[in-house]
């Protein structure tokens, strides 16, 4: 069973403010901003909303992994190696850019005209894997186990990790990460262990305010679109959260933690390496279509053509 003896301290909370990204997309970015540049091993967290006519047309990556979790709608994906697919609600894609990928991520047209909404998390790659071959792991909604706790008032989708005795699929990303989608009904309380020493955060997606335990006996109420950054003290072994009241809306949040890395992070746009020299080299490799970007030559995605890219 998942039982927490000492909840992690809350180091900081911040509101993810809306900004433009890609071509006509809007995102609420909480990691990768002036107030939280990075959170080792996490580089960026975007809560995106993309309508048809907007999107993320052809662009490169090197040196990181991305985890995309689609909440509503549909997103098409295509890359220069011929990989393509569609994410539907509840699906995830784990992409390892490695030495180089060029791809496009574009929204589907929903019958009711609604936007396509999800999360994208950028995770650093350890130095030894910066130049690995790119790869993808898709995780379909029906492959994600869920567990109900606290007399039905808590439901946890176990995307990566273990919760209340239920384990997720394995080997989704190179960088070890746990990832839970948690819904707590009024009066409900969840306890989730997090590997000791790992860096963790919670992002409140929707619904009621969530009251998070804050170290020894304290609590903090956190609203929608806020990121809660937790400490990782030696004795702090997990996260405790509850929703007040006896009726009304549930609170929903994702809880994520990752194994920290002892390495320099030099990021410029879509390239994340360990030195400025490697970033300069990445730009040169991309522009000259070499060292992993050979297949970029003359490539244009089908899904990006609608935007003239």
TrEMBL record:
Domain Pirin C-terminal, chain residue ranges per copy: 180-292
All residue ranges annotated as the Pirin N-terminal domain in the record: 26-123
InterPro entries linked to this entry: Pirin, Pirin_C_dom, Pirin_N_dom, RmlC-like_jellyroll, RmlC_Cupin_sf
Family, as annotated: Belongs to the pirin family.
Protein name, as recorded: RmlC-like cupin domain-containing protein
Cofactor note: Binds 1 Fe cation per subunit.
CDD domains: cupin_pirin_C, cupin_pirin_N
Record-linked SUPFAM superfamilies: RmlC-like cupins
Positions contributing to Fe cation binding: 59, 61, 103, 105
């Amino acid at each position: 069973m998942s039982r927490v003896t000492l909840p992690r301290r809350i180091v900081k909370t911040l509101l993810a403010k809306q900004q433009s990204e890609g071509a006509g997309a809007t995102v609420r970015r909480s990691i990768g901003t002036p107030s939280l540049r990075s959170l080792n091993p996490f580089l960026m967290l975007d809560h995106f909303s993309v309508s048809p006519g907007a999107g993320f047309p052809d662009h490169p990556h090197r040196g990181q992994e991305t985890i995309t979790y689609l909440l509503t709608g549909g997103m098409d994906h295509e890359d220069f190696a011929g990989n393509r697919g569609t994410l539907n609600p509840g699906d995830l894609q784990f992409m390892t850019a490695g030495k180089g990928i060029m791809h496009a991520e574009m929204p589907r047209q929903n019958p009711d005209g609604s936007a396509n909404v999800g999360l994208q998390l950028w995770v650093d790659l350890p130095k030894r894997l910066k130049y690995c071959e790119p790869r993808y792991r898709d995780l379909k909604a029906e492959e994600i186990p869920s567990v109900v706790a606290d007399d039905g008032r808590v439901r946890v989708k176990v995307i990566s990790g273990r919760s209340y005795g239920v384990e997720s699929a394995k080997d989704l990303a190179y960088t070890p990460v746990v990832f839970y989608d948690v819904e707590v009904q009024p009066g409900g309380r969840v306890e989730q262990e997090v590997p000791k020493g790992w860096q963790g955060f919670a992002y409140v997606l929707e619904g009621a305010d969530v009251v998070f335990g804050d170290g020894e006996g304290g609590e903090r109420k956190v609203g929608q679109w806020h990121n809660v950054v937790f400490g990782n003290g030696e004795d702090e072994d997990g996260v405790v959260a509850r929703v007040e009241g006896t009726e009304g809306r549930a609170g929903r949040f994702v809880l994520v933690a990752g194994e920290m890395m002892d390495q320099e992070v030099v990021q410029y746009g879509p390239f994340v390496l360990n030195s400025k020299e490697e970033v300069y080299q990445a730009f040169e490799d991309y522009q000259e279509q070499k060292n992993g970007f050979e297949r970029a030559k003359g490539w244009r995605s089908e899904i990006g053509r609608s935007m003239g890219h």
